[in-house]
Amino acid sequence: MRPTYENTSTLKHESTFAVDLGRVWRCLLVKVPVKYCIDTVAMRNGSPVAWVELKNRDASSNAFGEYMLALSKWKEGRELAAATKLPFMLAVRWSDCDTCVRLDGEAKIRLGFGGRVDRGDWQDKEPMVYIPMSQFTRVPTRERTVDHVSM
Question: Residues 108, 115, 95, CA angle at the centre, nearest 5°?
Fold first, then answer.
């Protein structure tokens, strides 16, 4: 069985990011059970409005030309979006800003194989999708006045 790398610290960062995004998007991001494979569902007025995968990265948003996401995560998010007719969003908190991209439509991706090597877990290397950073939109979560940003 594969170890779980989610811990109190990562969950705290995820929760803070979810609250910040919810303030901007005027919704509540609710953590869903692991069987959904996506971190949260965005709720507005008691109804789901989007599936949102949250990522926290220590690097700056311009450190890479592409964002790497597990193919399985991309596939599961798109299947949820198709089944529910809700958007599938990827939101990334970088060291310098927060960004998001909608992945349920015709997002330009590149297939590849990659992953991390620092944990010694052979399952960290897997098929990936690479999303050009040019497709991401900056989310004004860290600014004092927040304008509405639609999903």
Answer: 75
| Residue 148, pLDDT above cutoff 60 | no
- What are the chain's domains? 8-62+71-105 (3.40.1350.10)
- At residue 75, φ and ψ (nearest 5 deg) are -65, -45
The span from the CA of 38 to the CA of 40, in Å, is 6
Residue given tokens 């030309």 in the structure block: 65
Q: Give the model's pLDDT for residue 106.
A: 82
Whether the CB-CB separation of 75 and 129 falls below 8 Å is answered with: no
Question: Beta-strand (E) ranges in 6-109?
Answer: 28-31, 40-44, 47-56, 66-70, 88-93, 98-102
Residues 6+ apart with CB under 8 A from 59: 94, 95
Helix (H, G, I), strand (E, B) or coil at 38: coil
